[in-house]
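Open question from group meeting: does this chain pack into something compact, or does most of it stay loose? Before anyone orders reagents, we agreed to write out a predicted structure and look at it together. Recording both the input and the output here so the notebook holds the full record.
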Amino acid sequence: MKLFYAPGVCSLSPHIAFHEAGIPVELQKVDTKTKAMEGGGDYREINPKGYVPFLQLDDGSYLGEGPAIVQYIADLKPESKLAPANGTMERYHLQEWLGFLNSEIHKGFGPLFKPNTPDEYKVIVRENLAGRFDWLSTELKDRQYLMGDTFTVADGYLFTLLGWTKWTHIDLTKWPALADYALRVSARPAVQAALKAEGLLK
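Structure tokens returned:
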């Protein structure tokens, strides 16, 4: 399999999942601004959407969108417990988390990365994210991970998103439960391996 990625963006989430599951994957780096692939080629010829993550399967077919990709990875290695079994209420709760992270946190950051977003609107965006972080802090106050004591693909996604706070001038220490959570997840060997592979750790 081949994962199309850019360092530190949302493709870090499935990259972490691959390491957690112990499944080897080929990496293809993409410049998401120019759409050029490392080594040559226009990424849009492979994925017309132009963004990552994008996964090429062993049969040559493709799978897009992070929440779908991470569940696919988890289901390849059920013993990794990166996702509860399909059809269980726990699996629906995992999908609930992935949906929340995708729509409320991931998309919530979007305007902060756009150079043409008015400064006054960025204030509103940060206020909205702060409200989501307040709620997340309450949820994580008495648990190790989003689903309890077991690390799942939702945690790889949240960890990735929390990493964006340092790029957008959001002080995560205002939410100690989230800051502690980020440190806890970052210490996992699989997370360290993914960060190093993307050049995010020396």
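Observations to bring back to the group:
The mean pLDDT is 97.
The radius of gyration is 17 Å.
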